[in-house]
Amino acid sequence: MKEIFSDLRFIVLSVLISTIIALGIAIYAVEHNLPNSEIKTLSDAFWWLIVTISTVGYGDVIPMSSTGKILGSLAIVVGVALFTTVTGSVASILVERSMRKKKGLGNVKMKNHIVILGKNDNLNTILESLVNYGKKKVVIVSDMDESEFENIQMSFPEMEIDFVKGDFTKDQTLRRASVTSSSTVVILADSNFVEDPDEKTLIAILAVRSIDPSVNIIAEVISEEKVKHILRAGANKVIRYGEFNPFAISMYASYPALYDLMYSILRDGKIKMEIVPEETIGKSFKEVSSNFKRDGKLILGIVVRKKKILFEDLETGDEMLDEFIKRKLEEIGIDVSSDAMNCEINLNPPDDYKIGKDDVMFVCLE
After folding, report:
1. 314 vs 117, which has greater pLDDT?
2. pLDDT for 240-250, tens place per residue?
3. Cβ–Cβ contacts within 10 Å for residue 183, how many?
4. In whole angstroms, what is the distance from residue 23 CA to residue 342 CA?
5. DSSP 226
6. Is residue 108 part of a domain?
7. Residues 280, 283, 285, 288: is their CA dihedral positive or negative?
8. Where in the sequence is the domain holding 63, given as residue range(s)?
9. Which domain-ending residue is among 72, 102, 132?
10. Does residue 55 sit in helix, strand or coil?
11. Is there a smaller number of Cβ atoms within 10 Å at the N or the C end of the chain?
């Protein structure tokens, strides 16, 4: 149906343009031999025609004969139809293109963006982390529907997110996502592919590599057994599916060197937690940090431990009053049911921060 309307629009435009050209030639034929005519050449005829159909109407050149005026009236009608048809066609094309883009059926025009293939529960967390790393151009390739994509767009208004609907193991779909001009391709363990997400990931890597051998590929993997096969297929980095992998994926997609640094620190056990020595209590973070550096230790942050409020400390002996106080404390988010410690992580504290007796330090060893 779309092809029929497209062909019909082309036919109408062709007929209108041909009619206007014929009118220009007819005006010249009728007017150029008249003694008092202002239309002596074809250029005069078409100048008058363009001025007339555009409704400018300078009046410097006008037909003198009755036949010429009839042709001029017809030119005005045809000209209005032409402009209406052209305007409607352009508006229709723009609206159609916009609708196709919203439905994920268009072609993406981006460079140095991150392409995310597939979707699962980690998608929103990955997008949040990418925002924190300053990476805001993303193309999502998935079978999600239009409303689901609009929800993602509304959740991340600061990002430039495009959507390509289709099977991301197909070359045509990947080309529509501009994989060849992207900086990184992230392949998620697709929740829509229930049989074996890792198998689809493997096929997707081969498809990406067939059209771009050099792009950086990060693959999320569920089964440990598939890791070596996925690496062999061409993935630059394989990250196991789990609670923290959205942060690892976004970090590697944004700054691979930072990911390698953090991974080596954690792998080699260089980060330790130490109870603050008694002699450092009450001293400034700057002073304590300097002393630790001399011993080859770098304090990355402080875990500030604060004792929770115990309801036993607030009891009045009046059962009704005690129940009222407990309910009001819970309404404002104060947990009075446990004597555990509340912990607050303070990375890179200010120099004047005073070390407390319940503090614990994150220390990086040489």
Report:
1. 117
2. 887 567 878 88
3. 15
4. 87
5. G
6. no
7. negative
8. 2-102
9. 102
10. coil
11. N
Cα gap 345→273, rounded to integer Å? 12
- Check which CATH number belongs to the domain holding 10 and give it: 1.10.287.70
Both 147 and 184 in one domain: the answer is yes
More confident residue, 329 or 66: 66
Residue 217 has φ and ψ, to the nearest 5°, of -115, 125
Q: Are strands 216-221 and 237-240 parallel, antiparallel or unpaired?
A: parallel
Q: What are the tens digits of pLDDT across the range 160-219?
A: 999 999 889 999 999 999 999 999 999 998 766 557 888 899 999 999 999 999 999 999
Q: What is the CATH number of the domain that holds 165?
A: 3.40.50.720
What is the Cα–Cα distance from 344 to 336, expressed in whole angstroms?
A: 18
> Strands of 360-365's sheet, edge to edge?
271-275, 360-365, 297-307, 341-347
Q: Which residue has the tokens 């792009």?
A: 215
The Cα–Cα gap between 162 and 153 comes to: 9
Nearest-angstrom CA–CA distance, 14 and 85: 11
CA distances from 96 to 2, 142, 173, 262 (A): 11, 21, 19, 47
Taking only the tens place, the pLDDT of each residue in 28-53 is 888 777 877 777 788 878 887 777 77
pLDDT: is 129 or 79 the higher one? 129
Q: Is 190 a member of any domain?
A: yes
Whether the CA torsion 261, 213, 203, 167 is positive or negative: it is positive
**Shortest CA distance to 363 belongs to which of 265, 282, 280?**
265
